[in-house]
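Let us work through a complete example step by step.
Step 1: write down the sequence.
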Amino acid sequence: MKNFKYFFAISILILTACSKEEVPTYNEQIKGVWNLTNIIQRKESQIKVLQNGNSTFEFKLNSVSIIGDTYLNKTGKYSYIISNENYFKPELIEPKNNVLKIGDHKYLVEIEYEGKNMILTNYSDGRIIYYLSK
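Step 2: predict the structure and record it as tokens.
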């Protein structure tokens, strides 16, 4: 019985000594300068390249500066918000996604684990997909 108590105490110490790695939120990860790699449109079983590069997005606390017109956004400074909601019907409880709203446009936002690549998907005309990198 003493061995069990000793083993149990050691197990608790080991488990509590391990610290969890904090995963940054999308609001933290998105900050910085992102370079547009390309924009593609997937519509009616076809893939069309809409733009290759020539734009940057600089995300700050509550605003994004876009330099170089894109398919959906013109050069300028916009407010943005990231929320966790259903892209098509925000009032639904499930399924939820990270949704980025820039001005009048909204996108599903995905940022890779290392935070160096981002994909923005808009469903206004088929799927319009922005590929960006830091």
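Step 3: interpret the result. The first strand starts at residue 32 and ends at 43.
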